[in-house]
Every structure is written in C-alpha cells, then in structure tokens.
Design goal:
By secondary structure, the protein is α/β, with parallel strands linked by helices. It contains twelve helices and ten strands. Strands 1-9-10-8-7-2-3-6 form an eight-stranded mixed beta sheet, with helices on both faces. A two-stranded antiparallel ribbon has the order 4-5. A hairpin with a 2-residue loop joins strand 4 and strand 5.
Length: 320
C-alpha cells in the first residue's frame, strides 16, 4: 500500500508526544502487509419485514455467528410486538422495526453482558439492547448498557433530555442503562478495561471521518473478534438518489458510515440500514484499513476536521 508523504507527516505530527517515531515505524511496517479484501466477507441477510421473518432470520443469523442451536428466548417476540405497537419510527433519526429487529436478534444471539452505544438521542436503541441482554442473563445486576451522547438535550426536541424514552420503554430495567452526556466515544476508556465490552453500537455523527474515529476509539475496549454495529450504512447513497429526483433531507446524508461499512476488510453482516462489522483478533490490523479510508475527503471542515485528524492518529497509536 502506498500513501502520500503527508500521511506520514500527519502521523508524526499528531501522534502522542514521545511516541511519534514509534508510530511512524509501525505504520511503515503494517503498510507492508496486504490489506484484506473489503468485499469478500459480507453477508446480506435482508430486511426483517415481519415477526415470522424475525424467527427465520434469527436462526440464519445464529448460524452465521457460530451459535447454531441458539433460539429466541421467551418474551422476545412479545416485547417486539409492544415496540411495534408504539409506532414504527416515532422520532426523526430513530431506528425503525426493520432495524431494531436485527439489533435485537444480534444482541440476543451474542448475549453480551456489557454494551456501549455512541449516539443516544431518545434512548430507544439503548432500551432495545438492554431488554435483549436481560432476556439472556436475567437479573444479574449492574449496568448492561453504557450510552454516550455529546448533547444534553435531544436535537429532535430541545425540551427533552437525552435518553428520555428509556424509563418509559423499560421501566423495570432503566437502572441497567447509564446515560453519559457531554461526552464522546473517547469516554469509553473511563467505563471499561480493555476488551470488556461484548458489543458496540454506533449511531452518532455519520460524517466522515467521525464513524471511523468512533470505531478506533472503541476498538481497544471491545473484545477481540467482537462486533460493532453501525447505523445508516446506506445514508449517502439514499441522499444521492433523493437529489437526483430533486428532493433533499434537512439533516443531510453523509457517506461516513456507508464508506466505513462498505470498505471494512474483515467479516461483516448487512441488514437494511444496519451493518455489523467484526473486529480482527489483532486490533493493530485496523491501521492499514484506517489509513486507506482517510484518503477520502473529510465531510467536516475547519477546526472540527483538525480535531478529528489529531484524534484519529492518537487512536491509531493506541492500537500499536
């Protein structure tokens, strides 16, 4: 793999002081290793269109994840029925049933004890995750979901605090979800030891390179070979189609999550708007892929771009 000299300069410039030469040497070493194919290990299991399909696709997904005999636990379908009855997507930016059916199935099958989420908004997805964990582990106690948001109040309704839906959706489990506001994904280091989280869900700023930065910041704290879920993996393409017909979306349609998922060089699973990416067992293997994705123009500019670039190289240093 070949990169402009500016990439090595940036690595030296933005790496933590005292580790700059080490980082550059490591990058040169890793770039000598061929990058795995970004297209060979993607499985599309399709949309979860109905409750009948949930059960069928649950079995398919369990097989893909190496849990061949896993079946949906008691209460799973009843809970999903209750969620659908509340309406499909109640708030802009939320996830619909075709997405949270997949989210529920993946969490149910993998049965992590701790999950970290970036991008809380109303707290709907955090509640979905917490409920799925509870059906696998019961009243084991402790926090099962750590959810992080940069804001204190929802962008869709400034009168409501971040995560306001959680107590209403899962009143008996609300204490198992901890909401952290005015924080970003680097706060993960304050919440867990290396490899402690069994799963992560990223649904925050989709503008490149923020999704990549979120993945790199979380990677040390998610177990090796663990999975990270990405929302809105077709947002950029959807926006382009809208523009071609003279339409637009007020919130914008960045490509960050889409580029990250499509070019992910390790195993991945797609279902509608959500993609699951598997971390490599050696997390330093993320470095060549990350530098390759950084060749794409940032969808942010000014001080935000400078801050993201510095954070990216510092996160890469943490993988060495």
């Amino acid at each position: 793999m070949k990169f402009p000299l500016s990439r090595y300069f940036n690595a030296f410039r933005y790496a933590p002081v005292g580790r700059r030469f080490e980082v550059v040497r490591k990058l040169l070493s890793d770039l000598a290793t061929p990058l795995p194919s970004a297209t060979g290990d993607c499985v599309d299991i399709g949309e979860f269109r109905s409750f009948e399909e949930f059960e069928t696709k649950y079995v398919t997904l369990a097989t893909l994840l190496g849990r061949v005999r896993k079946i949906s636990p008691p209460g799973e379908l009843e809970f999903l029925h209750a969620m659908v009855d509340l309406d499909d997507v109640r708030y802009p930016g939320g996830i619909g049933s075709r997405d949270y059916f997949f989210l529920t199935a993946l969490v149910s099958i993998l049965a992590p004890r701790r999950v970290i989420e970036i991008g809380t908004l109303t707290g709907f997805s955090a509640a979905i995750i917490a409920a799925a964990i509870h059906r696998q582990h019961g009243n084991s106690g402790g926090i099962s979901v750590e959810t992080i948001d940069a804001r204190t109040h929802c962008s869709i309704d400034e009168t409501r605090p971040i995560g306001f839906e959680i107590p209403a959706l899962i009143p008996d489990l609300a204490s198992t979800v901890r909401v952290h506001t005015r924080r970003e994904s680097d706060f993960a280091r304050e919440l867990a030891a290396d490899g402690e989280f069994g799963l992560a869900f990223i649904d925050a700023d989709h503008r490149h390179p923020w999704p990549l930065l979120d993945v790199l910041r979380l990677a040390p704290y998610v177990q090796s070979g663990g999975w990270i879920l990405l929302h809105d993996i077709q947002l950029g393409t959807h926006g382009q189609k809208l523009r071609e017909t003279g339409q637009s979306m007020e919130s914008g349609t960045p490509y960050g999550a889409e580029w990250l998922f499509d070019r992910w060089p390790f195993r991945k699973i797609r279902s509608f708007h959500i993609g699951a990416i598997e971390l490599p067992s050696r997390k330093a293997d993320l470095i060549p892929f990350s530098l390759s994705l950084l060749e794409e123009p940032f969808e942010i500019s000014g001080n935000a771009a400078k801050r993201a670039r510095r954070a990216l190289y510092q996160s890469l240093a943490e993988l060495i």
